[in-house]
Specification:
By secondary structure, the chain is an all-alpha fold. 82% of the residues lie in helices and 0% in strands. It contains eight helices and no strands. The two termini are 21 Å apart.
C-alpha cells in the first residue's frame, strides 16, 4: 500500500531537517570543538610564534589552509559515512551548507547582538556573514560533486584549496593595509566565482524530489 501524501511529506521534512542539523553539527565539531582549540595551543607555542614572526605570509596561509582541511574534511566524512547514497538531489548539499554556515553566523552575530549592537550597526558584519553563507553553500556543493562524479578526493582537494585561498588572501590584504570595503569586495568576487561554479554543477545531480533519491538508494 503506497504511503499517503501526509506520510511522504513528513518523511521528506525529517530528511531535510536531518541534513540541516548534520551540517550544523559538522561545523560545531570541526571548528569550535577541534580546530579553534588546536589553533589556540599552536599560537601559544614558541616555535609557531617564531615562525609567524620570521615568515608571516606562510603562517597566514597555513592557518587559512587549516580551515579548509578541517571544515571540508568533516563535510567529506559526513557525506561519506552519514549521507547515503552518493547520488542525490542538489537540495542535500544546499541544506547541509545552510546548517553549516548558519551555525557559524549565529556564533558570530548573536554575541554581538547580546552586547547591545543594533542590526543597523552591524551592516558590514551582516554582509560578510551573508557572503560566508554563500561560500559555505558553494563549497559544500564542490565536495558533493566528488560523490556525484566518482572523483571524491579530487573535489575534496579542490574545496580545501578554495577554502584556504579565501581564508589566506583576505587576512593578507587586510594586513597590507587595504581598506575593509575593498577587502569585502574582493571577498564578494571570490564567492561569486565559486557560486557560479556551484550553480553550473546542477547537471551532476539527480533531478526531482526525494523519491528519486530513494529509488537510487535501492539501486
Amino acid at each position: 500500500m503506497p504511503d499517503s501524501p501526509t506520510m511522504q511529506s513528513g518523511r521528506t521534512f525529517r530528511k531535510y531537517l536531518w541534513w540541516f542539523l548534520l551540517g550544523a553539527a559538522c561545523f560545531s565539531l570541526s571548528q569550535p570543538l577541534l580546530r579553534i582549540p588546536l589553533l589556540g595551543l599552536v599560537n601559544h607555542s614558541v616555535w609557531f610564534t617564531m615562525f609567524s614572526m620570521l615568515h608571516p605570509v606562510p603562517a597566514v596561509v597555513a592557518i587559512g589552509l587549516s580551515a579548509g582541511v578541517f571544515e571540508e574534511g568533516f563535510r567529506f566524512l559526513c557525506k561519506r559515512f552519514l549521507l547515503r547514497p552518493a547520488k542525490c538531489t542538489m537540495v542535500q548539499p544546499l541544506l547541509f551548507g545552510l546548517g553549516h554556515g548558519g551555525t557559524e553566523a549565529c556564533l558570530i552575530l548573536i554575541p554581538l547582538l547580546l552586547q547591545g549592537y543594533a542590526f543597523w550597526e552591524l551592516q558590514m558584519a551582516l554582509m560578510e556573514r551573508a557572503l560566508a553563507m554563500l561560500l559555505h553553500l558553494s563549497l559544500t556543493v564542490v565536495v558533493w560533486n566528488g560523490f556525484q562524479t566518482g572523483r571524491r578526493f579530487r573535489y575534496l582537494a579542490a574545496a580545501i584549496v578554495l577554502h584556504g585561498l579565501v581564508d589566506s588572501v583576505l587576512p593578507l590584504l587586510a594586513q597590507r593595509g587595504m581598506q575593509v570595503a575593498f577587502v569585502e569586495l574582493i571577498f564578494a568576487g571570490m564567492v561569486l566565482c565559486v557560486g557560479a561554479y556551484a550553480i553550473a554543477s546542477r547537471r551532476l545531480y539527480l533531478q526531482g524530489g526525494t523519491e528519486n533519491e530513494e529509488k537510487n538508494e535501492v539501486l
